TrEMBL record:
Protein name (Swiss-Prot/TrEMBL): Pyridoxal phosphate homeostasis protein
InterPro entries in UniProt: Ala_racemase_N, PLP-binding_barrel, PyrdxlP_homeostasis
Residue span(s) of domain Alanine racemase N-terminal: 11-233
Keywords: Pyridoxal phosphate
Pfam families the UniProt entry points to: Ala_racemase_N (PF01168)
Domain of life the protein comes from: Bacteria
Organism: Achromobacter denitrificans
N6-(pyridoxal phosphate)lysine PTM sites in chain numbering: 39
Coiled-coil ranges per UniProt: none
SUPFAM superfamilies xrefs: PLP-binding barrel (SSF51419)
Length: 239
C-alpha cells in the first residue's frame, strides 16, 4: 500500500478500505461508522480533523477530554471515552463525555449513575467485553454480561446501553483476531433474546487500525481508528 502522509489522504484511504471491507462482507458502506481516536494528539491535529468533517473523537482519559473540550468549546464536538475508566473518575466522565464505551463493571455503573443523576443527564454506553485471554486487556467476562445488563435496566436508568465493545487479541494470526470479533457478535445475538427494556444492542464497536477489516467482516458497526488517521503516536497510551 502507498504511504500517505497527510491526514486528508490517510482519512480517504481508511474510508475506502472501510467501503471495500463492507463490499466484501455484503454490507452497505453506511453500516460502519468511523470513530477517529485522537488520544495523545493535540488541538492542532483535532482542528485538522475537524476541517475534514470529523466531529466525534475517541479518547482514553477523562483529563484529556476535559482539556480538549475546554479548548474547543462551542465547536459542537462529541467526546467518546474508550479507555479504562477508574471509578474515582466517574464524575469527570459523567460531566464531559458524550458516550462511554468502556463500561465494564457494576461498581463503575453505579458511580456513573450517581454522578449522572447529579448532573441531570443520561449517557449512552457500550459494555466492554473481554473476548481474549490477554491479562492486559480490560472488559467484563462474557458470562457476566447478561446479569449486568439486567442490573443496568433495573437500577441505573441514566445509562442507556447501545451495544458492546471489545479489543481483539494482539496476534499476527488473523483467525485468532477474528475469533474475538465473532465472539462479541455471537454474545450480542444471544443477549438480544433477553429483550431487556431500555437496552439496545445495535452497536458493535470493534476494530482498530490494525484489524478493522476483519472486524467489519464479523459485523462491526463502529471502528475505532487512531494511528491510521492521525499518524503514529509520540508516546504510547495504555488501553
Ligand atoms: C488507542 C485505541 C484505539 C485506536 O488504536 P489504533 O491502533 O491507533 O487505531 C482503539 N480502541 C481503543 C480502546 C484504544 O485505546
Amino acid at each position: 500500500m502507498t504511504v500517505v502522509d497527510t491526514m486528508a489522504g490517510r482519512l480517504a484511504q481508511i474510508q475506502q478500505r472501510i467501503a471495500d471491507a463492507c463490499a466484501r462482507a455484503g454490507r452497505p458502506p453506511e453500516s460502519v461508522t468511523l470513530l477517529p481516536v485522537s488520544k495523545t494528539f493535540g488541538i492542532d491535529a483535532i482542528r485538522e480533523a475537524m476541517a475534514l468533517g470529523l466531529t466525534r473523537f475517541g479518547e482514553n482519559k477523562t483529563q484529556e477530554i476535559r482539556q480538549k473540550a475546554a479548548a474547543l468549546a462551542g465547536e459542537g464536538l462529541q467526546w467518546v471515552l474508550i479507555g479504562h475508566l477508574q471509578t474515582n473518575k466517574a464524575r469527570d466522565a459523567a460531566r464531559d463525555a458524550t458516550e462511554v464505551q468502556s463500561l465494564d463493571r457494576v461498581e463503575l455503573a453505579e458511580a456513573l449513575h450517581r454522578r449522572l443523576v447529579n448532573e441531570g443527564r443520561s449517557l449512552d454506553v457500550l459494555v466492554q467485553v473481554k473476548t481474549s485471554s490477554e491479562p492486559s486487556k480490560y472488559g467484563m467476562a462474557p458470562g457476566d454480561v447478561p446479569a449486568f445488563l439486567r442490573r443496568i435496566a433495573a437500577d441505573f436508568p441514566t445509562l442507556h446501553v447501545r451495544g458492546l465493545m471489545t479489543l481483539a487479541v494482539n496476534s499476527p494470526d488473523p483467525d485468532q483476531v477474528r475469533a474475538c470479533f465473532r465472539a462479541l457478535r455471537e454474545l450480542r445475538d444471544r443477549l438480544r433474546q433477553d429483550n431487556l427494556p431500555g437496552v439496545s444492542l445495535d452497536r458493535l464497536s470493534m476494530g482498530m487500525s490494525g484489524d478493522f477489516e476483519l472486524a467489519i467482516e464479523e459485523g462491526s458497526t463502529e471502528v475505532r481508528i487512531g494511528t491510521a488517521v492521525f499518524g503514529a503516536r509520540a508516546y504510547p497510551d495504555p488501553q
